[in-house]
Design the sequence.
């Protein structure tokens, strides 16, 4: 298909090429994601940081829109009119009640469960990828997804007027399927796990010439996750935290938060300091955590089997890079059981009023596990990344959170129920006639 470069509204870009992460080979800024000429390593966007340093200050960022596009000079788009649906600038919540429960002094929740428009961090990466897709002339966009990415790709494509076809595993949670179909894309439910879906999508991308946000557009797409690093630094008063805990699926989010912190240091927006990076996986799909525990520098693929489907990637593309970051920052990578995932969801909800999906339950459960093991200093300022909304995975907690009391519309019926409720643990309520 024809790929037209840059709209008339484009300004001088701060990105210059695609560069192989392994061998350093450079490529032009097209729809390409692997080093085809030399080593088949992953490609990343290369930036002119001197140009960014001359163009960007704290004041220019603060004068920008209340979205990820306040950081446009750090993102791989040229247009002055990116796709802006209010994505980003989500709350950084000082979590005092959860901190007291865990014995921490300074704990924050970066709450992308309320990100716009589809209530997950994927809105960040898709906004960047689809803006770049338009610049490259794509009219049909697609993705391989465990749910959140399909929601986001379909929604933002609808807003941008792009044709959309998404691919998901056939056993995906009902809320995520509905949350994609409402935008009227073509949805392909593949009878297989995410890794099988992804392999099929690679073939489709090669034969149909579509813009797959997490395949041929991946170098641009992944850069959107850096904004989770930028926002935390800005929201902390232009400083970095001591420790972050984030979920691990492909490993890309983890590596890009790290890159975001490093870029702010590089251009002088924040002071440099050590930041420990810890990652969270579910036992039923924990290839990166297994490699970390065993001291390996490679990740062995696994077959996913966990309720935490949004992070159930058995063959993580950026797993080795996540391992490297955790180790060199003196962080950790841990995994938890499905039962602990549910408990993590409940713990965050009952202490901070945040209903997260299973990925967030995994992250909170790992946070708790690390604290109990003495791997998080109680004096550290710790930021936990919550990446999706619990309304998408309600099945995970059904049967674990009790039932309402059923009463007659009479005061005496209410009084009997209230008396009984005071004798029961809040999480063990039963539906009883009174």
Sequence:
């Amino acid at each position: 298909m024809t790929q037209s470069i840059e709209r008339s509204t484009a300004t001088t870009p701060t990105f210059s090429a695609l560069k192989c992460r392994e061998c350093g080979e450079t490529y032009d800024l097209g729809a390409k994601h692997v080093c085809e000429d030399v080593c088949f390593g992953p490609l990343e966007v290369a930036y002119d940081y001197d140009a960014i340093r001359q163009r960007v200050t704290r004041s220019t960022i603060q004068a920008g829109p209340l979205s990820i596009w306040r950081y446009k000079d750090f993102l791989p788009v040229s247009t002055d009119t990116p796709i802006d649906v209010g994505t980003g600038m989500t709350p950084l919540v000082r979590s005092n009640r959860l901190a007291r429960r865990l014995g921490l002094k300074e704990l924050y929740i970066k709450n992308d469960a309320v990100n716009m428009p589809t209530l997950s961090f994927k809105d960040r990466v898709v906004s960047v990828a689809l803006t770049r897709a338009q610049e490259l002339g794509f009219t049909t966009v697609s993705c391989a997804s465990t749910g959140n990415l399909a929601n986001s790709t379909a929604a933002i494509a609808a807003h941008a007027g792009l044709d959309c076809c998404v691919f998901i595993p056939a056993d995906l949670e009902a809320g995520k399927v509905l949350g994609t179909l409402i935008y009227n894309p073509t949805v392909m439910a593949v009878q297989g796990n995410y890794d099988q879906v992804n392999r099929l999508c690679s073939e489709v991308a090669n034969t149909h010439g579509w813009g797959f946000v997490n395949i041929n557009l991946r170098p641009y797409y992944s850069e959107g996750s850096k904004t989770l690093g930028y926002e935390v630094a800005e929201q902390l008063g232009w400083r970095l935290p001591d420790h972050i805990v984030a979920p691990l699926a492909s490993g890309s989010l983890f590596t890009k938060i790290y890159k975001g912190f490093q870029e702010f240091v590089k251009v002088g927006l924040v002071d440099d300091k050590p930041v420990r990076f810890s990652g969270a996986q579910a036992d039923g799909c924990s290839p990166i955590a297994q490699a970390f525990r065993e001291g390996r520098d490679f990740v062995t693929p696994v077959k996913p089997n966990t309720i935490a489907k949004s992070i159930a990637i058995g063959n993580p593309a950026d797993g080795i890079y996540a391992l490297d970051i955790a180790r060199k920052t003196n962080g950790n990578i841990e995994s938890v059981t499905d039962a602990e995932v549910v408990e993590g969801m409940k713990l965050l909800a009952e202490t901070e009023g945040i209903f997260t999906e299973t990925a967030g339950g995994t992250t909170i459960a790992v946070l708790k596990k690390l604290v109990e093991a003495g791997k998080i200093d109680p004096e550290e300022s710790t930021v936990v990344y919550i990446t999706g909304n619990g309304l998408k995975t309600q099945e995970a907690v059904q049967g674990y959170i009790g039932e309402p009391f059923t009463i007659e519309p009479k005061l005496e019926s209410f009084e009997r129920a209230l008396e009984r409720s005071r004798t029961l643990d809040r999480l063990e309520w039963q539906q009883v006639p009174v």
The first strand starts at residue 15 and ends at 20. Residues 30 and 65 are 28 Å apart (CA to CA).
